[in-house]
Amino acid sequence: MANTLPVYDVRCAWQVTDVSAFADRGGLSNGRVGLRLCNLGGSKLRGNSSLVSRSGGRNGACVGGSRALTPITKSVLKTEYETPAGVEADVTRLERAVTERGFEVDSRIEEELKGEGGFRNVRRTKLIATIGPSCCSYEQMEALASSGVNIARLNMCHGTHEWHRQVIKNCRRLNAEKGYGIVVMIDTEGSEIHMGDLGGVSSAKAEDGEEWCFTIRKFNGPLPAYTLPVNYEGFAEDVQVGDELVVDGGMVRFEVLEKVGPDVKCKCTDPGILLPCANLNLWRDGYLVREKNVTLPTISSKDWVDIDFGISEGVDFIAVSFVKSPDVIKHLKSYVAARSPDRSIGVIAKIEDANSLRCLDDIIRVSDGVMVARGDLGAQIPLEQVPSVQEAIIDACRKLNRPVIVASQLLESMIEYPTPTRAEVADVSNAVRQQADALMLSGESAMGLHPQKAVEVLRGVSVRMEHWSREESHHEKPPLPEISTSDTGRTSEQICNSATQIANKLGADAILVYTRRGYMASLISRNRPDCPIFAFTESRNVMRCMDLQWGVVPFQFAFRKDLESNLLQSLALLKAHCMVRSGNLVVAVSDVSSASQSGTGVLQSIQVHVLS
To answer: What is the pTM of this model?
Structure first.
């Protein structure tokens, strides 16, 4: 049985609810207009109702035994797009699971919820691992997935399309056979100045004082010793003797000694590991030389080929390198929409160029998410500014309701060593404390000696830091700025803000969101509630997109006629599968309208249930 608070209908005249009245379970309040006394599992709750109106005739509902609420599934499940060949098995699995069980969720999350810790075990921060030679087989990817990876990133700088296609097949196979919910992101190379392939070797070591030759020559066979190819034809013309050449965001540095035709001879001043396709930056007299980089297109001809490949393979996200303006993102999104009209693909803007910081908010608004690529960004701005810029980007993304990924050199030492440095652990902890939506491994997983251990470190640090933050965050968080312009949008925004406040005040175990497009789930996530967010949707595509959002556990679920039916049915199903327990308190919101509301608009509400 489940006891419920009366349903509060919130219409366009909605104002923020005074939730200070909703004290801890059993607390009292002195509401200005009147008191409502509701039975919540034996305790009493009094609430201030001055800013909401009670819906007539709704006095709560009781959930009957799960036997009386058997799964009711629709004859045709929505997928909202023609499925690319690469995801057919995954979609078939989801449809079968929804038909047989009434819902589908990542099997790893399901096991966590069934465990002793229950809701406390659910990690809020999402994990991204770059797939490379160290972790590309089915067995290696299964190990990463079992360690907690949510998103598999494919760096299009490396590997052939056939190699990437096999990795995507491995992801789909894991999802189909193991019930995982791994999504796929491709990351474009970009057209900035960078090195080429290293003649087939995975890396090279540059020692202090060694002389190396950077050249635009093309080689059919092996590279000559101490020679590095460069992709930019005007490289030798643009550099000057005495310039500092910064490789891969400062991992190796060279001083330009001499120019001879297409060759540039340099001396290593900071030794390190050279990787294929590493980015190059020129510094002159203490300033970054960026004129040529500004004239290069953000999306190269190779990038367009890679983007077409990603669309054809049904990837979930496309990350764009070296974004300088919002126009690039708008152009790509219109192209993707034309090529894939029935299936949305999220476009992630990588902030790794100093020019992007000048129009950061505009870039965030038009993107589906942002990546703080600290390696290349740190080569374009002073190093001491990177921490404050990272925090500013995370804060801006949260205010504008866009997911944000912190990437580059999180656990760089684990490329070689089985344990990270304490400074790296502190860096990861800081990103979690700042409440970034996701953390990303690059070389640590792609070419490192310990990819699974690196993922486990990220997971362990994230869970511990999230738990500590919840224990310490008893103070009120500053209010978020309003972002919606329409009446409907403002209503949804205030509903989600207030639902989060109510959940935090009551110590709720979870917030349940029923959403068709994922928007209300993102608004709840934006508030960073203390409890996990269970987001129910009919669309597989929306389910996958929500995998990037902080604290969101996406479910695929066949909707019923109204919120109350959805809520009662989903709770019964979750309880039947031991994912919720008696005594759990949940807060529910929805943007799903019923047929009876078609002539009067969407009725939005907040409900509170205690399972018994």
So the answer is: 0.80
